[in-house]
Design brief:
The structure is a homodimer. By secondary structure, chain A is an alpha/beta fold. Chain A folds into 2 domains: 5-93 and 208-261, Rossmann fold, CATH 3.40.50; 95-205, Rossmann fold (3-Layer(aba) Sandwich). In chain A, 47% of the residues lie in helices and 17% in strands. In chain A, strand 3, helix 3 and strand 4 (91-92) form a beta-alpha-beta unit. Chain A binds chain B through residues 36-39, 43-45, 47-48, 144-145, 148-149, 151-152, 158-159, 162-163, 166, 238-240, 243, and chain B through 36-39, 43-45, 47-48, 144-145, 148-149, 151-152, 158-159, 162-163, 166, 238-240, 243.
Chain lengths: 266, 266
């Protein structure tokens, strides 16, 4: 089916999810929307996050997308059930894929979750984990400085290490054996997070897992593309396209060609 | 004159300006708008900052304000001249008051400016300083982590000190003798900034100076209030009011009573 996959995020972080979808389904067209004028979502209230998420979804629906991927943990935490309930198009978020993986790999049933303040406050990860297995222990920690640190590019710095030690200290003390990176920016800080948590604590990065879920759903519904030509990728943002193209490169792993700015997109 | 003073900011930082205006002109009614749904502005592009600033101004104009105070450095940097040109109501920003003070107190003509990425990129401070005295040297440094650190409340922490040392090192090396705090959040980090820069480098915090400018303008134009009753303060935000009331307290220095959320405010 020739319709594109729609992906939205509060900004550039969701490009890590787009990247894995491109790798996993190289024939699919993709329309990506990053709400760079209103980023971040992780410090905002539930109602605002829900409102923005619905607006982003409405924008993507204009492209007759066959599936919507909510590539933002904060959006997924607060708006996924609403989007699933209210819209016809299938919607996949980033919470469940990460949770399923964590539940699989945990050895002693002690799962840690890190994310933005809003994601952690929502309790979405904890709820999803307990739904699979109520006996599992979940320990959560908001890490509000991780996104600005990742955007500053201080990926291997002493200062970032000190901050990570401070945020992750309590999780480590609680004997967490698996850590979910509940924000699309955090994989950039993987080295430091792993150094603090210890090499034996696997870090669950949901980008790849989300791509697997998308493929599975499209296959099941007979919606996979049989496109023979090169896939078309379109990127839209609510703020300046140039900055997105430049800083997005390290998230997407390749050059971002066409980025367009959207005005009054709902 | 009974009309209120209108103040807007990208979020809560502008409350430091509101606080000084309250102290300096205790008879004036105030309407404050904080664009907490779209905060921060300091990472956004000029066009987006200008658009948001105009929208905020249009919202405040509904209250028939007699003056508009742009209490956000990023907004002031990009939109002040447009707002001044296009609207009838007098507009005061936070750049010029700080600049006038810095030019007064500098001993060796080496002025440092710190602010958000957008403020520093705009060159607004440098331009304003050079207009007064082209012989003055200006050294600028964006400090993107200062706002998240201030909001995290790490005001006296080792980590904040290390980050400040890193940001301010080059300014110190250049022999800056006066430092403009070009963001309303930075006064919260005054102790640490001062520790890094040395006690002999005065820090220019424009909040008080802006209040002085407002009073001067209102006096000159015969617009001061002769209100005998207690002044009325109204606070509006675009995101959740509760969070604003709680975290705003440390910026305003007193309890924030009535905060209302505005929907689709333009």
């Amino acid at each position: 089916m020739k319709k594109p996959i729609g992906i939205f995020d509060s900004g550039i972080g969701g490009l890590t999810v787009a990247r894995e979808i491109m790798k996993c389904m190289p024939r699919e067209d993709i329309v990506y929307f990053g709400d760079t004028a209103r980023v971040p979502y992780g410090t905002k209230s539930p109602n605002t996050v829900i409102k923005f998420s619905i607006e982003n979804m409405l924008f993507l629906l204009r492209f007759r997308v066959k599936i919507i991927v909510v590539a933002c943990n904060t959006s997924s935490s607060y708006s996924l059930s609403i989007l699933e309930n209210d819209f016809k198009v299938p919607v996949i978020g980033v919470i469940n894929p990460g949770v399923e993986e964590a539940v699989k790999v945990t050895r002693r049933g002690r799962i840690g979750v890190i994310g933005t303040s809003a994601t952690i406050r929502s309790g979405a990860y904890e709820k999803a984990i307990k739904e699979i297995n109520p006996a599992l222990k979940v320990f959560s920690q908001a890490c509000p400085l991780f996104v600005p640190l990742a955007e500053e590019g201080w990926l291997k710095d002493r200062v970032t290490y000190d901050i990570a030690k401070r945020y992750l200290g309590s999780l480590k003390a609680k004997g967490v054996d698996t850590l979910i990176l509940g924000c699309t920016h955090y994989p950039l800080l993987k080295d430091i997070i792993s150094k603090v948590m210890g090499r034996r604590v696997p870090l669950v990065d949901s980008a790849k897992l989300v791509a697997g879920h998308v493929k599975e759903l499209l296959t099941r519904e007979g919606l996979l593309s049989d496109n023979k030509a090169a896939p078309r990728y379109a990127f839209y943002v609510s703020d300046e396209p140039k900055k997105f193209a430049v800083s997005g490169k390290k998230f997407l792993g390749e050059k971002i060609r066409s980025v367009k700015k959207v005005n009054g997109y709902v």
